[in-house]
Amino acid sequence: MEIKASKLKFKNGLRDGLPIALGYLSVSFGFGISAASKGLSTLPALLISMTNLTSAGQVAGLSVIVAAGTLVEIIMTQLIINLRYSLMGLTLTQKLDDTFSTLHRMAVAFFITDEIYAVASSKSGGVNTRYMYGLGFLPYIGWAAGTLFGAVAGSLLPASVSSALGIAIYGMFVAIIVPPAKKDRGILFAVAIAALISCAIKYIPLFSFITQGFAIIICALLASCLAALIFPVKEESENDC
Questions:
Q1: Are the CB atoms for 217 and 180 separated by under 8 Å?
Q2: Angle subtended at Cα 118 by Cα 114 and Cα 123, rounded to the nearest 5 degrees
C-alpha cells in the first residue's frame, strides 16, 4: 500500500508539472534560438539549460558570455538574479515532510523555479519526495528539450529568421512585467528606472567602460534600491490581521 501511494504521489507530481513543462518548452525554444543567433553552438546551449534552469539568469548569462565578460561578472549576475530562489527554498522547507533527507533537499533545490514553487507551496498539507520529483521532472525535460530544438533550428534557419524568433523569450519577460506593473506603482517605477539606467549605460560615452555583466548588476541593484526607498512595502498592522 505504501509503494502504491508513493507512485500515486509521483504521478500527481507529473500531472501538475505537465502544464509547466509545455510552457517551458516554448520559452526555452526562444532561448535556444537566441543562443544560436549569438554564435553559441547546440551543445553548449543545451548544457546551459540542463545545469541552470533559470530563464532570466540564462539570458543575462548569455549576454555576458557573448560580450566576453569575466567569471566574476557571471557569478555576481547569477547571484543577484537568482537570489530569490534561495528565499523560495527556505519557505518551501515548511511544506516538506520527513521523507526529505539532506540529499533530497539538495536535489529538489536544483529545480525550484517560480512556477514549481507556486504549485508546491499551494498544496494543502506537506509534500513528499516522490511528488516533488514528479513535479520537477517534466518541466526540466521541457526546458532542456525546448533549448535543444531552438538551438538546432537556429543553426539551420536563415540569420534573419533566427533573429526574429530569438526575441520570443524577451516577449515572455514583457508579458511577466506588464500585468503587475499596471497594478503596482513600485514595480512600474523599478522597471522604468532599470530601463533608463540601461539606456544611459548603453548610449552615454561616459559609461562606455562598463561591461555587459556589470551593467545588468548596476541596473538591478539601483532600480530595486530606489523602488524600495520611494515605494516601501507597508507592513500589516495587528488590527489588519
A1: no
A2: 155
CA gap 238, 241 in Å, rounded = 5
pLDDT surpassing 60 at residue 191: yes
Query: What's the rounded mean pLDDT across residues 178-203?
Result: 88
∠ CA 189-194-199, rounded to 5°? 130
What's the Cα-to-Cα distance from 178 to each of 14, 76, 172, 175, 189, rounded to whole Å?
30, 26, 10, 6, 12
The grid coordinates listed for 217 are 548588476
Q: Which residues pair with 127 in a beta bridge?
A: 96
CA distance 30 to 173: 12
Nearest to 108 by CA among 80, 88, 123: 88
Beta-strand ranges (E) seen in 133-232 are: none
61, 80 in Cβ contact below 8 A?
Answer: no
Q: Which pLDDT does position 180 carry in this prediction?
A: 81
Residues 6+ apart with CB under 8 A from 208: none
Nearest to 104 by CA among 128, 87, 121, 82: 128
CA distance 148 to 74: 22
Q: Does 163 have pLDDT greater than 80?
A: no
Is the pLDDT assigned to residue 153 strictly greater than 60?
A: yes
Provide the whole-model pTM: 0.74
**How many H helices and E strands in the chain?**
11, 0
Following DSSP, what letter does each residue of 28-91 receive, concatenated? HHHHHHHHHHTT--HHHHHHHHHHH--HHHHHHHHHHHHTT--HHHHHHHHHHHHHHHHHHHHH
Give residue 194's Cα distance to chain centre: 18
pLDDT at residue 131, rounded to an integer: 92
